[in-house]
Design goal:
heterodimer; A: about 550 residues; alpha+beta; 2 domains; 6-stranded mixed barrel; about 50% helix; B: alpha/beta; 4-stranded antiparallel sheet; 7 helices; 9 strands; about 25% strand
Chain lengths: ~550, ~220
């Protein structure tokens, strides 16, 4: 007890020394607190990302040459996985123009109205344009497609455009499409549930999945070109059976320029302005009817007349990254899981990891410098207190008790400074972290812009030569959702994390205590060594 | 149990290993209830002897027996903090403590259960003629004589069996010197053994036994 009492007495009498130690520890603790807070924010955000992020993904065949489409049965089977939170799909069928409607011709041989030309330029036959100029520039190199890569049937050209990756366009050999897909004027698409409809369609409120009537939504350009209005009717034909005709009624018009989706001009049917949306019930009805009309045909049949077949595109929603990864592993070698949410996540987390790395180096340096400075201060302090050690041991105080007293003194001073330092550090950690994030972001952006060559695709998974786009992601995508999901995060995940709002938590406080104990033990070890070495008689004789 | 509280057998001490002995084959005995004066010329080894007796230095050879036990085999901290009290020539008080606190600290270190340590410390300090206003003063604000008295009070505070005093009256006026000697006499009468290293003939006269150390040539 007297050891503690004596320690406190010594703290109050040696103010100068203790203030100096306190200041050093204060600086160290502020720095450590900031460093640890950055690391903790990094860890927490990554975990929150992974835990709270709802991921939308599509499943594609790994080898697109062998198998371009996945059957609805297979998609449904995959959707039964315990890792899948929600599953939606869209079905698309190609149609040829019937009465009252003609497609916007991307080949330039038919119609390119003024709006179209303003938007995409004068597109010539065999030429491909997208809304992203760089994509057009790089289209040839990015696909590497040959004729042999595509099925010999027009159905092989599954429609693209829109969805998660938005501005991604996969270009095929144009002549092939213009030759082979000449009858595919329109893509009629339906979604299995109302919630999975794209915003620009669902906002019109004219299509419900249970509506069996052939009410449709067409693009504004298509409507203007064909002078169609709401209530107008037109017909579409089965490209493989011109006798099979379906009559549609225009129920709504969407503006494709507001969809934030690129235009795939590889064929008329894949051109977004030639998309026609109907309800899933109507789609089922069409497919049933077509199958009844063409009972003898199969997909491999050599017969000219064939039933309409749908291309299905499944969208899997996962509650978190862990489920996504597990599902991805369960897919085996035949399929691959693609999500722009995940690539966005990886992009967003990259600067946090950079920051975490900086914080670790910073902490190591701080700890080494801190321990070194504290050891030096303590050694000087012990040398100055030699006489005190001599007297105390001469009158019978055990050396370990003297050492304990010194360690207690150091602990009290260190922890007092640590508390103050941690308080300052926790307040300072957020602006410092945010400032570092801004610096890292600007550096990364500069690097990215410098290294980006004209024609480069935006960063994506890049491991697929097919369509990774979809229609399931709500507008605003990952970034918008994420801001809602994680309260202490602000920023646009599609770009970079720009700020955090809290960093110091109980974990950091516990780590700070460990840092404090570590520093105290390291520095007091030197003091203890000296105390144990001193012999009282020598000290007192030297003083005399 | 030995009849001597302290017994020196063939005690030798050299500052340097293998060097000349400053104390060579010393055989002395000390009994309870007596005051011993150790005298001798400067350099005769008086203070060194006191260091050996108080366990601060180790003899080169020979034994120091405390109540029949070799002090080399006794825990030296227990020996110094409980069994013997030392009044150093240079007082060796803690400068950051007051007179009372210095005395109380010794009581604490001894580990003996002493009630009202503060009261007892004050009584002891008053006993060695320290004025009341000086009791709570810092040591550095006291004169040499006052510090000497605090050092004596500290040595008495945990009632050791033996008190070693190195020139305990060296900084004191004649009246205080007499007072201190009276206190030491009282303690001796209470059964303590008092061993004083001194140059003072007056102190020697008041002792029961005088040992003179000769300088070894």
């Amino acid at each position: 007890m007297y050891v503690i009492k004596n320690a406190f007495r010594c703290i109050s009498r040696a103010k100068g020394r203790n203030v100096l130690i306190g200041l050093v520890v204060l600086l160290l603790s502020v720095s450590s607190c900031i460093g640890l807070s950055i690391k903790e924010a990094n860890r927490t955000l990554k975990k929150q990302y992974a835990d709270d992020m709802e991921i939308t993904a599509t499943v594609n065949p790994k080898d697109m040459r062998k198998n371009r489409n996945i059957s609805l049965d297979k998609l449904t089977e995959l959707s039964n996985s315990e890792f899948v939170k929600e599953f939606n799909y869209s079905s698309s069928v190609y149609f040829a123009a019937g009465d009252g409607i003609e497609p916007l011709d991307v080949a330039g041989s038919f119609k390119q109205n003024k709006d179209f030309k303003d938007k995409y330029g004068d597109v010539k036959n065999g030429e491909t344009r997208t809304t992203t100029e760089t994509q057009t520039e790089s289209s040839e190199s990015s696909t590497g497609s040959e004729n042999s890569e595509f099925p010999e049937k027009p159905e092989g050209g599954f429609p693209t455009g829109g969805g998660q990756s938005g501005n991604k366009t996969f270009i095929t050999n144009n002549n092939f499409f213009f030759n082979m897909a000449s009858m595919n004027d329109f893509t009629v698409t339906a979604y299995n549930s109302d919630t999975s409809l794209p915003e620009y369609i669902s906002s019109l409120g004219v299509i419900t999945s249970s509506d069996e009537n052939l009410n449709c939504v067409i693009s504004k350009s298509l409507a203007e070109e064909n002078e169609l209005e709401i209530g107008s009717t037109f017909t579409l034909k089965n490209p493989d059976n011109e006798e099979e005709v379906y009559a549609f009624t225009v129920a709504g018009v969407f503006d494709s320029s507001e969809t934030d989706e690129s235009q795939d001009t590889s064929s008329n049917a894949s051109f977004t302005d030639n998309y026609i949306y109907i309800s899933s019930a109507a789609m089922e009805k069409i497919l049933l009817s077509s199958a009844e009309t063409n009972p003898e045909t199969t997909e491999d049949s050599e017969e000219t007349a064939k039933a309409l077949t749908a291309n299905y595109k499944g969208t899997f929603i996962f509650a978190n990254l862990d489920n996504y990864n597990k599902f991805s592993e369960s897919l085996g070698d035949d399929y691959t899981l693609v999500s722009s949410d995940v690539s966005n996540y990886e992009q967003s987390i990259s600067q946090l990891e950079t920051l975490g790395k900086y914080a670790t180096y910073f902490l190591i340096v701080i700890f080494i410098i801190g321990a070194f400075v504290l050891i030096i201060i303590n050694l000087f302090s012990i040398r100055n207190r030699k006489y005190e050690i001599g007297v105390l041991t001469a009158i019978g105080m055990k050396k370990w008790k003297v050492a304990t007293q010194f360690v207690i003194e150091l602990f009290v001073v260190t922890f007092a400074a640590l508390i103050i330092g941690s308080t300052i550090g926790s307040v300072a950690s957020v602006p410092v972290t945010n400032s570092l994030l801004v610096t890292i972001n600007s550096e990364e952006k500069t690097e990215s812009e410098t290294s980006k060559q004209p024609g480069d695709f935006p960063a994506t998974d890049g491991n697929i030569s097919g369509d990774v786009s979809g229609k399931m992601t709500p507008p605003g995508g990952f970034g918008g959702d994420f801001k809602q999901m994680i309260g202490d995060f602000e920023g646009n995940v599609n770009n970079y994390i720009i700020s955090i709002s809290s960093a110091t938590d109980m974990t950091v406080i516990l780590q700070m205590i460990l840092v404090g104990m570590g520093l105290t033990l390291v520095s007091s070890a030197a003091a203890v060594t000296f105390v144990m070495r001193y012999e009282p008689l020598k000290i007192l004789n030297n003083r005399d | 149990m030995s009849e001597y509280v302290l017994e020196l057998k063939d005690l030798c001490y050299s500052y340097v290993k293998g060097g000349k002995n400053i104390i060579d084959g010393l055989n002395l005995t000390f009994e309870k209830g007596k005051i011993y004066a150790i005298v001798g010329k400067s350099g005769a080894g008086k203070t060194t002897l006191l260091s050996l007796l108080s366990g601060l230095a180790k003899p080169t050879s020979g034994e120091i027996l405390f109540n029949g036990s070799d002090i080399a085999k006794i825990n030296k901290y227990n020996y110094r903090s409980k069994l013997v009290g030392v009044v150093f020539q240079s007082f060796n008080l803690l400068p950051y403590l007051s007179a009372t606190e210095n005395v109380m600290l010794s009581m604490d270190i001894s580990g003996k259960k002493i009630k009202n340590k503060k009261e007892l410390a004050k009584k002891l300090l008053e006993k060695v003629n320290l004025e009341e206003e000086d009791l709570n003063r810092g040591i550095l604000k006291l004169s040499g004589g006052q510090q000497q008295r605090v050092a004596i009070a500290r040595a008495l505070s945990y009632e050791p069996d033996i008190i070693f005093a190195d020139e305990p009256t060296g900084n004191l006026d004649i009246d205080t010197q007499n007072d201190i000697m009276k206190i030491l006499r009282t303690l001796a009468n209470e059964g303590k053994c008092i061993i004083i290293v001194t140059h003072s003939p007056d102190v020697s006269k008041l002792s029961d036994v005088i040992y003179e150390l000769k300088t070894i040539k």
